[in-house]
Write a structure and sequence with these properties.
CATH superfamily of the largest domain: HIT-like
Number of helices: 3
CATH topology of the largest domain: HIT family, subunit A
Shape: globular
Radius of gyration: 18 Å
CATH architecture of the largest domain: 2-Layer Sandwich
CATH class of the largest domain: Alpha Beta
Bound molecules: adenosine monophosphate, zinc ion
Strand content: 15-25%
Number of domains: 2
Number of strands: 5
Strand order of the largest sheet: 1-2-3-5-4
């Protein structure tokens, strides 16, 4: 299966490379939100964040940290965002996981259009309980493998 980011990692197609470590490559986004908008791409192909191995997380985040520092220094930024789209419903268009790091400026008019909700009655407690239970289910096999 062809993947544009795998082709960039293997240097089959060109990109403006900013940084590289053993787990990740950082390039300039070809259609930036602002000039300097960077992508951090794991070297291993993963469709989304859930597929990324825990052994890769610190290398990927180290690259995000380094590139964020560099953007702040290079463009004298007061702020920046980093984010990842996971799944088409969340806006993902390249299905090789990546993290965006983009400069932000005062009055740049970039915002999610948010319609914030309120929890009714016990809904907040119930929602938290559902998530805690899912976390317990996830950690069961991990805990068993450590015993
Ligand atoms: P997403 O929509 O979160 O999957 O982000 C994919 C990003 O990859 C978009 O911001 C694109 O502009 C960027 N992109 C796609 N192809 C290339 C490429 N060949 N080089 C650099 N950036 C790219
Ligand atoms: Zn890929």
């Amino acid at each position: 299966m062809s993947c544009i980011f795998c082709d960039i990692i293997t240097r089959k197609i060109p990109a403006e490379i900013l940084y590289e470590n053993e787990c990740a490559l950082s390039i300039l986004d070809i259609n930036p939100i602002h000039y300097g908008h960077a992508l951090i791409i794991p070297k291993r192909h993963h469709r989304d964040f859930l597929e990324v191995g825990t052994d890769e997380l610190s290398g990927i985040m180290q690259a995000v940290h380094t590139v964020s520092h560099a953007l702040v220094k290079a463009f004298k930024l007061e702020g920046f965002n980093f984010f990842a789209n996971n799944g088409a419903v969340a806006g993902q268009s390249v299905f090789h996981f990546h993290i965006h790091v983009t400069p932000r400026y005062h009055n740049d008019n970039i915002r999610f259009v948010l319609h914030l909700k309120r929890y009714e009655m016990k809904a907040m407690e119930e929602t938290a309980a559902i998530i805690r239970s899912a976390i317990t289910d996830l950690s069961m096999p991990l805990m068993r493998s450590h015993t």
